[in-house]
Structure formats: C-alpha cells, structure tokens
Amino acid sequence: MEAGDLLFIWFTFFLYYLIKKIAMQARVVYIVRIMRIAINLSYEGHNYSGWQRQLSQPSVQGYVETALSKVADHKVEITCAGRTDAGVHATDQVVHFDTDSERELHNWVMGANANLPDDIAVSWAAAVKEDFHARFAATARRYWYVIYNRATRPGMLHKHTTWWHRQLNVQQMQAAGQHFLGEQDFSSFRSAECQSKTAKRNVYYLTVKRLGELVIIDICANAFLHHMVRNIAGVLLAIGEGKQPTDWAKQVLQARDREFAGITAPANGLYLVGVDYPKTFKLPKRTAIGPWFCQFVL
Q1: Hey, which end of the chain has fewer CB within 10 Å, N or C?
Q2: How far apart (Å, rounded) are the C-alpha atoms in residues 260 and 275?
Q3: What is the distance between the alpha carbons of residues 35 and 86, in angstroms, rounded to a whole number?
Q4: With contact defined as beta carbons under 8 Å apart, do 270 and 145 qualify?
C-alpha cells in the first residue's frame, strides 16, 4: 500500500471521527428537573377578597404566587386544598407548585415569608412526589367556626370571631349537629354561586363545645360546598338561641332547598384548621389546631 493510500485512509477516519463528535455535541439534550413542592400556609382573611386570584382585588393566592415567584426566579402558579371566601381565615392551608429552581426547603419558607404581607405566612415546605395534589389528594378538610358568645360586643378579636349576644345552648347545638353526619345531600346548605356538580358530601364528625365565652363548631368532611360550613353554623346558631327546635336541622337537610336554611353566618368566625392526606406523602405533622387564641383555653 502506497503512502498516499495510507494518508487517505487516515484522513477519512479522522474526518469520520470529527463529524461524529460534532453530531453528538449537537444532539446534547439538557434535562430540566421539575420538582413539586408542598407548603403550609396560615393567614387572616379579613384583608382579602378570598383565596382565588382576582384582577382588581387583593387575594391570598395572588400574594403567595408573587412571593414564591421571586424565590423561584420564575412565574409560579399554586393549587390549594380548599379555596376560602373573603374574610375566612386559615391556620392549615396546604398548596403545591412545580418548579425547576433548586432551593433548600427552608429557603422556600424564609424567602416566601420575606416577601409576604404580615397576615400571610408559610410554616413549612416539603418536596413531594409528582402524584401529590393539594386538592385531589386530600382525604378530609376540617373547619372551626368560632363564636364569641357574650352580651356585649368584644373590643378584641372582632375580626377573628363572630359575636353572638344571645346566650347559646351548646348541648342543643351539639344534638342538632349530629343530623349532618354521614354522606348526605347538602343542597340546603350550598350557595347559589356553588359550582359543584353534586351536593353530596360526607361529614365525618361535628362537635360543638364551649370554652368560656367562646363556642366552637368543629366539623370535618371529605369536602365542602360553597358556604356549607357557614350555612350549617347559621342553622345551629338559630337552634342554640332557642329560635328553632333541635329537629329543625334535620328538616332543613331533608328539604334540599337553600331557602329553608336561614342565615349564612358571617365569614370572620370561620377557619380552615386542617387538611388530611394519605401518610404515604409523608407531610410534616400538625403541631397545633385552630387559631392561636384558642390554644390558651383548649
């Protein structure tokens, strides 16, 4: 084989190697790791138009998304366990969001809190699997309705409780509340704006207890209709002050008509105090239930 032939073969192999290397570099795919983060929120609702993002009104969702977007350095959209109405508070709201920004979990907490108003706060953050969904993975929601029951209006906590000046019979309210247990049609307790396809909900428990001048309605269900808790509270308040008999709760439930249910109790006494998920998601355990001022009397 002549020298020219060897040079040609060498050049051909070199050219093949060079073209292959360039082609491989051109085919490099940058894999972006998307992570799902769950966070826990507490907030006072009286300064906001509700949870859901609004174009012209302040909302909890709007402030939280803005704060998290600053930490993530990209736009963040969040999904919550339960959308609260204007004036409704939460001590244990859970949300999730997706991000490709790598941050330590405590940085999500501290960074978000640094950019949130004083009446909204993040208590923990957890990395979760992609099948976690704050709304659809939840197995139960728990609400407290807190009533300040005394003859004269309180100078404090007026935005955090519902003042009721007539004396309430807690035993009658407790007895009436048992009519709501189990899976039933709660059409009488849904608002006209409720968008749920079905009015059936499964109430796991409902208790009413007095703590000094505070009366707390504690209710847990798989899910709730729009205004459902506040409408139930309205019925129990009427029974508690003696305007209606205990069995009226059952009559209203069976009527399946909102006009039979009476008042919708004010929003300022309502708290989302708990959201339950399967243990497989390994979310941080709840350390306390309900608003801070109830912890001193529980």
Answers
A1: N
A2: 30
A3: 31
A4: yes
The arithmetic mean of pLDDT across residues 140-159, rounded, is: 94
Contact 227, 85 (CB under 8 A): yes
What gap in Å lies between CA 50 and CA 244, rounded to an integer?
A: 32
Task: Give the domain ranges of the chain.
Answer: 35-128, 140-283+290-294
pLDDT at position 101 is 94
DSSP letter for 52, please: S
Q: Please state the pTM of the whole predicted model.
A: 0.87
| 3 state SS of 290 | coil
Residue 255 has pLDDT above 70, yes or no: yes
Domain 140-283+290-294 belongs to what topology?
A: Alpha-Beta Plaits (3.30.70)
Q: Which residues carry out catalysis?
A: 85
- Count CA atoms within 13 Å of residue 94 on its CB side: 27
Give start and end residues of each alpha helix (H) in 76-152.
Answer: 105-114
